[in-house]
Amino acid sequence: MKALVYHGPKDVRIDDRSKPKIEHQEDVILKVTNTALCGSDLHLYHGNVVGMKPGQTLGHEFMGIIEEAGDRVEEVKEGDRVVVPFNINCGRCWYCRHQLWSQCERSNPNTELGASFGYGQMMGGYDGGQAEYVRVPFANTIPLRIPDNVSEEQALFLSDILPTGYFGADIANVQPGDDVAVFGAGPVGYFAVMSSLLRGAARVFVVDHWPARLDKAAKLGAEPINFDREDPVQRIKQETKNRGAICIDAVGYEAVGHHKHEKSSNPAYMPQDSLQVINWMVDSARKLSTVSIPGVYMTDFVNFPFGNFFNRGLQIKMGQCPVKQYNEQLLHLIEVGRIDPTQLISHRMKLEEAPKAYDKFDRKGENGEVHKIVFTP
Ligand SMILES: NC(=O)c1ccc[n+]([C@@H]2O[C@H](COP(=O)([O-])OP(=O)(O)OC[C@H]3O[C@@H](n4cnc5c(N)ncnc54)[C@H](O)[C@@H]3O)[C@@H](O)[C@H]2O)c1
Ligand SMILES: [Zn+2]
Ligand SMILES: [Zn+2]
Fold first, then answer.
1. How far apart are CA 21 and CA 44, in angstroms?
2. N or C of the chain: less Cβ packing under 10 Å?
3. Distance between CA atoms of 224 and 354, rounded to whole angstroms?
C-alpha cells in the first residue's frame, strides 16, 4: 500500500509499505478515505520532535471504513464509517476510567505520555493514517461512528483540530460576553474562534501575519490583528478598555515574532522555537484569567515570564486535547448544521502529492492562502 513516510527533516516520501495486520484482538484495520495535514505534522517535518526516527508513517488526522475487526471488537464492525481521534486510549486504565483521555497510561510502551498516531517513539511509535490503511488499536474505545447524513469532509476534523480548537476555548473558560484573543490564524485558531463565538464571546481578536489567513478568520467572525503592522498587545489592550482578553495560544513553540523572542535552552531544537506568543499573552490577558495553550510546546525555556504570570494572577492550562471528551457533541453540532468544518479546506489532493503538500503547507502559500489540506488515498 502507499504511505507517507518520514525520512528526516523536510524529507517525507510516498513509499510502498506492507498493509497493516490485526496484531491484537481489539484492533481494527481501517481503509482510509480521508486524511489531513496538521500544524503538528510540521513540528515533525522540521525535525523538532525528539525520538522521531526515519521509517514511520505520519498522519494523526484520518477517517475511513473498517475493513477488518479483531475477535474482541464489539463496539464497531466491518463496514462502519468512523473518524479516529489522534489520542490512543485503552479505555480501561486509571486515566481512561476517569475520562482523562489524553494521558492513557497503557497505550504508550515507550514513555509516560499519552500515545498518538504517527508521532514517533515518544508518543508510542504507532504508524499514522496518511496511508491507504492503518491499524487502529483499542477499537472498542477509540473510533467514533459517523451517521449517514454527515459526509467524510464534515467529519474528518473531529479527529483533532475541531475538538482541539473547542478545547482551547473550554480550558480558557470562555463565557458569554468575554472578549477573546486567539493567537494563530491556522486551522486550530479558526476552530478556537468558532468555538469562542459558539460559547458566547462578545468579540474575538485573531493575531497572525498572513493576510489570507487573517481574512479567513474575519469571515468566521473574528477581528484580525496583523502583528507585522501593529503591536498586538497594545491593540488588544486598547480595544478592551485596557482590561485585556481571554487568551488562546494556537501557535506553539515555533512562533515567529518581533520582540522578546527567547530561544529554548535545548540545543537539540531548531532555532525558530520561541516564547513569542507566551510573552504577548502574559501582557494582553485579562488579569486573573486562564491562559489556554493548545499550541504545542516540546522544550523548556529559560526565560519564561513567571513573575508576570504571578503578578497578573494568571492561570495556565494546556496539553494534548482529550478528543473523546468533545467529539460526540461536536459531531451533533455538525449534523444539525451549527458548525461547517469544510469551510477550512483550501486544498484537496491525492495522497501521492503529500510530499509536495507538506512543503506547501509549511510555506502557507504566497499570502497565507493554504489553510487546510485534505488527502484522499
Ligand atoms: N494540543 C493539541 O492537542 C493540539 C492538537 C492539534 C494541533 N496542536 C498545535 O496547535 C498549533 C497550531 O496548529 P495549526 O494546524 O493551526 O498550525 P499552522 O501552522 O497551520 O498555524 C499556525 C499559525 O501561527 C502563526 N504564527 C506564527 N507565529 C505567530 C505569532 N507570534 N503570533 C501569532 N501567530 C503566529 C503562523 O503564521 C500560522 O498561521 C500547533 O502548535 C499544533 O502542533 C495542538
Ligand atoms: Zn493534528
Ligand atoms: Zn488508558
1. 26
2. N
3. 30
Q: How far is it, in rounded angstroms, from Cα 2 to Cα 14?
A: 6
- For 78, the grid coordinates are 466491518
Distance 199 CA to ligand 1 centre (A): 21
Ligand 1 centre to CA of 338 (Å) is 24
- Torsion angle of alpha carbons 241, 246, 250, 252, nearest 10°? 90
Collapse the DSSP code of 253 into the 3-class scheme (helix H, G, I; strand E, B; otherwise coil) and give the result.
Answer: coil
Q: Is the CB of 257 under 6 A from ligand 1?
A: yes
Give pLDDT tens digits for 303-349: 889 999 999 999 999 999 999 999 999 999 999 999 999 999 999 99
295 in ligand 1 pocket by Cβ < 6 Å?
yes
**CA–CA dist 337, 344 (Å, integer):** 15
What digits encode the pLDDT tens for the residues 193-209? 999 999 999 999 999 99
Q: Are strands 203-208 and 115-116 parallel, antiparallel or unpaired?
A: unpaired
Kindly give, in sequence order, each residue whose CB lies less than 8 Å from that of residue 307, ignoring residues fewer than 6 positions away.
Answer: none
DSSP strands (E only) in the chain: 2-8, 11-16, 28-36, 62-69, 81-84, 87-88, 115-116, 133-136, 144-145, 179-183, 203-208, 223-226, 246-249, 290-293, 315-318, 347-350, 373-376
- Residue 185's nearest CA partner among 164, 215, 229, 221 is 215
Which ligand 1 atom sits closest to the C-alpha of 256? 28
Specify the ligand 1 atom closest to the Cα of 323: 3
Cβ of residue 207 lying under 6 Å from some atom of ligand 1:
yes
pLDDT digits (tens, 9 = 90+) for 24-70: 999 999 999 999 999 999 999 998 888 899 999 999 999 999 999 99
Cα dist from 109 to 70, 90, 118, 149, 283, whole Å: 21, 12, 15, 38, 40
Q: Which among 272, 325, 322, 319 is positioned nearest to 294, based on CA atoms?
A: 319
Amino acid at 217: A
Q: Are 198 and 353 in contact (CB under 8 A)?
A: no
